[in-house]
Design brief:
The complex is a heterodimer of chains A (319) and B (494). With 319 residues, chain A is α/β, with parallel strands linked by helices. Chain A has helices spanning 2-24, 43-59, 74-80, 95-104, 138-147, 162-173, 188-197, 261-276, 278-286, 296-317, and strands at residues 32-36, 63-67, 89-94, 114-130, 153-156, 181-184, 202-206, 215-221, 248-256, 291-294. In chain A, strands 1, 2, 3, 4, 7, 8, 9 and 10 form an eight-stranded mixed β-sheet that branches. In chain A, strands 5-6 form a two-stranded parallel sheet. In chain A, α2 (43-59) runs antiparallel to α9, α4 crosses α10 and α6 (162-173) packs across α10 (296-317). By secondary structure, chain B is an all-alpha fold. Chain B has one domain. Chain B is 72% helix and 1% strand. Chain B has a two-stranded antiparallel sheet with strand order 1-2. Chain B is globular, with a radius of gyration of 22 Å. The model of chain B has no long low-confidence stretch (mean pLDDT 84). The chains are: A alpha/beta (319), B mainly alpha (494). The interface between A and B is large, with 52 and 60 residues.
């Protein structure tokens, strides 16, 4: 036992010496791992794989992408929280993974588990109905719901997903949440099929979905009207009050809490440089990604404010 | 569709197009044959390579990987009783017994021809009837899906003849395993006992590989010295002669129809199709008494149905722009990257591209035959390894495959536990197929039932009134359940 202890402390000493030596050198001195909390091949995975080479150029080191899926992204976040805060492992987490799941599920991380690095993308959400539905405006929709309480269904891609929260924000904000019913699906694909078939009447997601056709936007959860649908009112315009009036599907990079400020700064700057790069801008345009860069300081404040304001929607959703 | 075919061929018959078709299909077969790397992972692995290609070859490459991997899964199912993907689990039932009695080449021959016919038939359906079928698919709401899955569950009865009670117990265990994790409708944890890892539930692949492959390794290892069965003798595919097809045509046709219909519906998939088709064949085939002991009809039912799903799954994807599963979602994402907007106008706006995709899909299925023969010939020497080495290789492949999918070490524990439990249960005579069927069908059964109850305001009676398709399917399920009873009674009287 004694020998083992001795070996262990000797080893620890060696490791410490190496660590000290490492700190003196420039960050990064080994590859940085960008963790996608979903399976390879999804939208988030695609975005990060498109981002990685530009980030590598900006940080001046190697960058690789890995996937840890499960639990709607919480498995990866749970595994990253509490890891060594050295800036070599960054998770790309959405609004749901970072601010919703910790408030509705028993996950091993929370508000203070992270050093936010930068936000990358943010798309405002839109509430849709089917083009085959008679209602053409949000006012008509509310009228129809009031006339026949309990008749209409709104879909979601799963409980607690951004699609769920969008519909909840709309109907809670308009005071008809108790007159509509929620039908969760397994992902947006089946929900879209549901709206095409008339099983559900309402669905909320980002504007990208509109391109598929067959959908009619009713209200936009943005601070101003969207250029692509100038006739559609914002939530605030139709009387939905804060914090329910703005909702964005955003995502950004998080490092474990306690990452040294100078490393955070360096990562955050490189992130901004990569997002501004011509290559990534072109990639974002191709994939209809709405880029929204915030540096570490701005993102930290944004993330904390979102955590607070989403609590209201979570309560309204009954999660 | 036909009028634009010449232009479509211009897109396919290029050096890039033909290379993509050949190499993609071959790679798909290899990836599918490796345990663990299912179709979804195989397609995702290839996705980055498509970014630099032009539209048609990029989609064709993904399609080639998809169709190849669904077929490739049958190779390992037949040769080492390890379904490369859950969708070829039903192929093990008759494929492995055939291989054990020295007819591995022949079993693969049947599986190959069945896969090719299933895939070709589904691509013809796709070319001629995609828009009409997509409209029909919209009639399938949660209530109809529930009824269909209920019908699928009755195949537990047919795959556990001999010991129906043990089969039902294994099926019940499978259903139970599928409810562990986050509640799909409320998000709350169920049966997780405070374990965060279990929020994601048991990974289907880890359990399938554990109960089929790892338990097989353990059984083989435990039999060493007490007359372990000889290793599989395999020297390449032996195609069935035309005369041997006599009397099998009807079953084949039925399986192809089942595969196509299930493929166009959201939320089901190739594993469901293979199980339902196998159960139907076991009910109605003249050779049903031999099922489970190495009957080619069982192989045909499973393999033609799971390959027919590939074309069916493309129906709503291409005709409506709505993906039904993860694989078709990846394909739509690829289209977006190449500047094609998926949606209900996809076919109208891009007729030439879609025609090229459909025609290319037909060619891919045609090429499964020669490429399948080449790949299995190359793989054959591997099977001549000494048994001890072979078991190590299988264990290693399983471990890598399971870890690769989600990158979660917890899945390895699940696989090991499933292997141990599978070993014990199999020694006690519990069949493992019902367990897997329960796990595959369980989630869809639960979600569709609960969605249906939300739609009808909690009235189960409303499932029967106003939903004729669902009503018919539920009647069929009851018939399937009672059939063994009738047969037993008639046998007693006769």
């Amino acid at each position: 036992m004694k020998v083992t202890n001795l070996t262990a402390s000797a080893l620890a000493g060696v490791v410490l010496a190496f660590a000290a030596g490492a700190e003196a050198q420039e960050f990064p001195e080994r590859p940085i791992n960008l963790i996608v909390p979903f399976n390879a091949g999804g939208g988030t995975d695609l975005l990060i794989r498109g981002f990685a080479p530009h980030f590598a150029d900006a940080i001046g080191g190697n960058v690789f992408v890995s996937n840890t899926a499960g639990g709607g992204g919480t498995v990866a976040a749970g595994a990253l929280a509490g890891q060594r805060p050295d800036g070599y492992q960054l998770g790309y987490f959405s609004i749901t993974v970072s601010t919703i799941q910790p408030q509705i599920n028993d996950v091993p991380y929370g508000l203070d588990s992270w050093s936010p690095i930068c936000s990358v993308a943010a798309s405002p959400t839109v509430l849709f109905t089917s083009e085959s539905n008679p209602m053409t405006t949000i006012e008509e929709a509310v009228e129809a719901i009031r006339a026949e309480p309990g008749r209409y269904l709104y879909g979601s891609s799963g409980p607690g997903a951004i699609t769920h929260l969008t519909a909840v924000a709309a109907f809670q904000g308009l005071g008809v949440i108790d007159d509509v019913r929620h039908l969760p699906f397994q992902g947006s694909g089946p929900a879209l099929q549901g709206i095409a078939a008339g099983t559900i009447q309402f669905f909320g997601d980002t504007e990208i979905l509109m391109q598929g056709g067959g959908l009619r936007p009713l209200v936009v959860f943005n601070s101003e009207r969207l250029a692509s649908m100038p006739d559609i009112p914002t939530a605030a315009e139709i009387g939905i009050e804060a914090p329910l009036n703005e909702l964005y599907l955003w995502g950004g990079f998080f490092a474990p809490a306690g990452t040294p400020p100078e490393v955070v700064q360096q990562l955050s700057d490189a992130c901004g440089e990569a997002i501004a790069s011509e290559g990534f801008q072109a990639f974002a345009e191709q994939t209809n990604t709405v880029l929204a860069y915030r540096n570490a300081e701005e993102f930290d404040a944004f993330y904390r404010a979102q955590y607070e304001s989403n609590a209201a929607i979570i309560e309204a959703a009954g999660l | 569709m036909l009028s634009v075919l010449p232009q479509a061929f211009d897109l396919i018959f290029t050096v890039e197009g033909l290379m993509v078709l050949t190499l993609g299909t071959m790679l798909g077969i290899v990836l599918g044959a490796l345990p663990g790397i299912g179709s979804t992972v195989a397609v995702a692995m290839i996705l980055p390579f498509t970014l630099t290609m032009s539209q048609a070859p990029a989609i064709l490459l993904l399609l080639a990987i998809y169709a190849g991997s669904v077929y490739g899964g049958s190779i390992s199912a037949i040769l080492i009783n390890t379904p490369g993907t859950p969708q070829s689990a039903a192929t093990c039932f008759d494929g492995y017994p055939m291989a054990q009695r020295g007819e591995a080449g022949k079993a693969l021959g049947w599986a190959t021809i069945a896969s090719v016919i299933g895939g070709l038939a589904s691509s013809i359906v796709l070319i001629f009837a995609a828009p009409q079928l997509a409209a029909f698919a919209l009639n399938f709401g949660p209530i109809e899906t529930f009824a269909l899955i209920l019908l699928g569950l009755t195949c537990i009865v047919s795959v556990s003849e001999g010991s129906p009670i043990k089969g039902l117990m294994a099926g019940g265990l499978g259903l139970f395993l599928s409810v562990v994790g986050g509640d799909p409708l409320t998000g709350g944890p169920r049966f997780t006992f405070g374990s965060f890892q279990l929020i994601a539930g048991f990974d289907l692949l880890a359990v399938v590989i554990g109960v089929f492959a790892l338990s097989e390794v353990l059984i083989r290892a435990s039999q060493r010295g007490e007359g372990a069965p000889p290793l599989i003798d395999f020297r390449g595919i032996v195609l069935p002669r035309l005369a041997e097809w006599r009397g099998r045509g009807r079953g084949l046709l039925k399986s192809v129809v089942i595969g196509n219909v299930i493929g166009i519906m959201p939320g089901t998939g190739a594993a469901t199709a293979a199980f339902i088709s196998y159960a139907e064949a076991r009910r109605s085939a003249p050779t049903r008494a031999n099922f489970g002991k190495g009957e080619p009809d069982g192989l045909i039912a499973s393999e033609s149905a799971n390959n027919a799903v590939t074309g069916g799954a493309l129906v709503p994807t291409m005709a409506l722009g709505i993906p039904g599963d993860a694989i078709t979602a990846v394909m739509l994402a690829t289209l977006t990257l190449h500047g094609v907007t998926p949606g209900i106008r996809l076919m109208q706006d891009n007729p030439v591209l879609i025609a090229a995709i459909f025609a290319g899909f037909f060619l891919i299925n045609l090429m499964l035959l020669p490429l399948g023969m080449i790949v299995s010939r190359v793989a054959a020497p591997l099977l001549r390894l000494r048994e001890a080495y072979m078991l190590v290789v299988i264990t290693l492949l399983c471990t890598l495959g399971v870890f690769f999918v989600r990158g979660n070490p917890f899945d390895l524990l699940i696989m090991a536990a499933a292997g141990g439990i599978g070993f014990v249960l199999r020694r006690q005579g519990y069949p493992m197929a019902p367990l897997v069927i329960g796990m595959v069908l369980g989630p869809t059964l639960e979600i569709s039932l609960r969605q249906g109850l939300i739609i009808t305001n909690g009235s189960f009676g409303a499932f029967f009134t106003g939903h004729p398709i669902a009503f018919g399917l539920i009647l069929a399920a009851i018939f399937m359940l009672l059939l063994p009873l009738f047969r037993a009674l008639r046998a007693r009287q006769g």
